[in-house]
Each structure stands twice: as C-alpha cells, then as structure tokens.
C-alpha cells in the first residue's frame, strides 16, 4: 500500500470516529449512521434495536420453555404478574363508587352504608392480595433465576471451551459484553423476563386504570380534564427519564495524561500483593509515596475513573427547565380544584372525592415499576436483548484455526518411529503485532531426530512450537508434518500425536492428580500411570510429602468467606485459627519454581505414556524444560528425552 493511500485511509478513519475530551479522558466513538446507537439516543432507534434482537430473545424463551422447571416457574410468574396488574384497577373501580355515594348523599342527604362497607372490604382484599402476590413473586423469581443460571452456565461453558487461542480472546470479551452489569444480581435472562413483563404490565395497568378513571369521572364536570392532569405528571416524569447520554456501541475511553498513568501504575505497585516483596526489600515505599502525591497534585481533582466522570455528566440534568416544570405538574389539579370551589362551593365534597381518586392513580404510577419510565426500561431492555444475542451468537463463532479432514497418522503404530516436521518459507505475525515473529523460515527435522533450537531472545523459538501445534496458522508459507500439509490434518489427531511443554506453561486450578492426568485424558483416572508420569518428571517425591498428596490444590478454586465485624469491634484483630482448625481449612500450598516445573514436565510425560492399545506420542516438544530445575533434576529430565 502506498504512503498516500495509507494517509487517506487514516483520514477516512478519523471521520468515522468522534473524539470528545472529558476531563483527562479521550472518548473515541465510532459513528454508526444506520446501525446500533446506544440507549437513549432516540426512542425509535432503541425500539428498532429491540426488534432486531427479538429473534434471539424468542430463541431464549423457547429454550427456557423446553426446560420443565423453568416452564412451570415462568408460567406461574406470568400469572402472578397479571393478577397483580389488574388489582389496582379493581380497587380503583370500587373507590370510584365513592363518587356516586357522595353524589347521592348530597342529593338525598343519606349515606348508603352497604356501599361503604363493600368499598372498604374490596380495598382491604386488594391490599392483602397485592401482598400475597408480591410474596409469591419473590418466591418464584429466585428458583427461576437459579435454574436459568445453571442452564446458561453450562451452555456458555460449552460454547467457550472449544474455542482456539486466536478466537477465544475476542469471544470471551463478547461473552462478557453479553452480561451487562446488573445491580439485581439476577441472570441476564431472568432480568429480561422481569423487565419485559414489567413493561407489558405497565401498559396493561395504565390502560385498565385509565379506563376505570374515565368511566368514573365521565359524568362529572371537568372530570376528563382532571383525569388527564392526574396522569400527565407521571408521563411527564417518564419523558424526563428517557434522556440518557447518547453513546455509540463501539467506543473506547483512554487517557494519555502522564501523571494519571503514573498514579495508576504506582497504585498498582503499592496495592498488588505481587509487588509487596520488592516494595519492602527495595526500601522504595517512601519514594513512591512522594511520587504518587506529586502526580496526584499535578492531576488535581480530574483524577477520576471514566465511569465516575460519566456519572457526573449524567447528573447535570436536574437544573433544566423541563425538570423544574416536571416538579410543578402535580399542583395543577389542586389549582383547578381551588378555582372550581370558588365558582361552585357546593361541589366541594364531590371534588374532594375525585381528587382522592386521581391521587390514587397518580401515586400508583409514581411507585416502582412505574417510577422508571417505559422509555428507560426499554433502553435497559434493549441492552439486555443485545446481551442475549451475543450469547447465542457465541454458538456460531467459528474457530480461526480451521480443522482439517485427514486422519493422522493413518497408521497409529508409525508414531513409534516419530514424526517429521518441515517448515517451508514460513512467515508469521501475531494478531495485533506489526512485527514479524518469524520471517521466511525453512528447515526440516526428520522423524525420530533430537533437535535443539537455539536463538536470541525474541527470535521466534516458542513461536515455532505454537505453529507446529497449530495454536496459530502461519501468515505465509507451509508446514509439513510427515510430508502432509499441516492444515489438512485433523486437529485433534495432530495434537494427540504430540506432547508439548510450553515455556509459559500454567498449572490448572484442579488437584495435582488431575494436573498431571490431564496430560492424557484417556489415562486421567489411572492413578498408576499418573504416579509413573510424576516419577518421570521428578515430582513424585515432593507430592507425597504434601499434606494432601496428589489431592492437593495448588490454588484453592473457591475461597472461604469470613465473618466481617463492623462498627466498634472493627479495630480488633480477629483470630480465625480455631474455626479454621476445626473446619480443616488449609492455606494454599506454595511450591517452588522448580517444583512447579517438575509438575509441568510430569504432565508432558503423561501424554507420552503408551496405553495398552496405542503407542505413545510421536513427538515431544519442550520449550526450555529445565529453566527452573536444579542440575540433578535437569540431568534426570534430559535422560528421559
Ligand atoms: N502472544 C503474542 N502476541 C504478540 N506478539 C508476541 C506474542 N508472543 C510473542 N510475540 C512476539 O513474537 C516474537 C517472538 O517471540 P517468541 O516468544 O517466539 O521468542 P523466543 O525466541 O521464544 O524468545 P525467548 O528466548 O525469550 O523465549 C517476539 O518479538 C515477541 O515479542
């Protein structure tokens, strides 16, 4: 590409991105003329967004209805919600009867007490019913949410676990994006059900109450005007809440403020336990404190996280004319009432009864879920709908490293004599790295050969291993395995035929037994083979010395919860040793770097152990296997190769 076209591309790119400076932050938003604009930018866009994602939500509902427990709970939830929605209208109808009672009382000078009793009883029954329904709702939501969470946890696990390295990074962030931050602690799916039902029921409740109000006030002078006014305040409020910060879906906030960057770095240095050792032994605490204060002073009060800056911005609406008008809306019915009373003093009782009725309606729309406008609810719902879409799209994510079709090797016994590898003009660039990790590399290693690759740091040695195991595919050139193009071979077969120890190996958060056993899942439950691999890797002895032996967790996957004492007692140090002792709670086992490496070597050997029917792997790939081993361990490890 020429320098000129690169520049014009950059200019084009700049036009497609809006840059805003907020405090120390630079906000870059992608302009998306016809697609997804984030919540609140326009009602029609939000609704369009909801509609776009609707098929995924229908898929989600079908999925839920196929789970028997969810089906029962969901149906029960909908019935409870519908009943709860109709209650206020029923109560309102009976309260409305008070009007005719007042009218009759004014004309005939007598009060029909049976109507009064009816109204009181129905009102009481509605209140009790509302309580019961609220209780039932709570009882249903938790189990419904729990079973949804379980089903979707399994689903997400299945979708993510089969992704390869280049695909995983992006997909994992997709999955995380699929879960908007929620204060309710409910699952995304359950939130969608709750919010959609709320919106639908808001409409039903609004219409039913409106119908009752109009029916009751129709006969009265100015009755419809009062009805309109009593409803206008909550609707006006809703309109106010729909304004949110317009935001493109693709945005990034970054800061180049040197002092803020320095403050954040020093904060990490001071607070993260990984640096504590150097912090203490290096005598640097005084220096970094002075540096932190200096940077903090230079940044001043702008040293806020982006989310905080945003919150401040969105609070600035409270001084607008609209918000002041909104606050005064509720006095309008009272003003009309006063004028009316001045003109016709006789109508005071009837008017008072009408006002009570109106406030009943108006209040019910000012309490949750009505306090949040349907517009705002719809925006949040749109966000969650998009989450569901992301979740289901994960099913369709294709691995970047495409699987081959040819079985490998054709004859399993051929693995005994090893596998040949050939690189032909291989070039490779890591995604997102402009520098080539390998450029035009060619070599051949014959089957059964021991080959050591030596080179300066960063020359691409580890990368060669990643290409042989097809963690990545070359950007250019060909890799041949036993003279066959590596891309044509079935991935699972290829990987089963080799045993690899990467330089940046990790231990799994499972017990040591499985840490080694997962080297070969066919033998993962064979304790004898696991012990043999541990022996070959030089790990057997120290594992046996651990309190839990092969059952030891290196890092506990679940941490205990401890009581937190607040208030006056908080200054006292609390001794948990007794409860820990009785509960047999152990601290994490700390292994040395060399012991960790022996475990990793053992896992690699596990893969190369032959089973009764099949030979071992045809190729062992080790990336600096002895870096943390002592000379004796290094010697015995090398003897095993
Ligand atoms: N995941 C990655 N993403 C981007 N670039 C990477 C990644 N891993 C390695 N690189 C880059 O690729 C080049 C080769 O790295 P590689 O790890 O293969 O070198 P090496 O020869 O094994 O180094 P060392 O002797 O230090 O282990 C380096 O320039 C490195 O910065």
TrEMBL record:
Keyword line: Hydrolase, Membrane, Transmembrane, Transmembrane helix
PANTHER family for the chain: ATP-BINDING CASSETTE SUB-FAMILY B, ATP-BINDING CASSETTE SUB-FAMILY B MEMBER 6
Entry GO MF terms: ATP binding; ATP hydrolysis activity; ATPase-coupled transmembrane transporter activity
UniProt superkingdom: Eukaryota
Domain ABC transporter: start-end pairs: 421-633
Pfam families linked: ABC_tran
Organism of this sequence: Suillus placidus
Entry keyword Glycoprotein: no
Protein name as annotated: P-loop containing nucleoside triphosphate hydrolase protein
Spans traversing the lipid bilayer: 70-94
Gene3D superfamilies assigned: P-loop containing nucleotide triphosphate hydrolases
UniProt KW Transmembrane keyword: yes
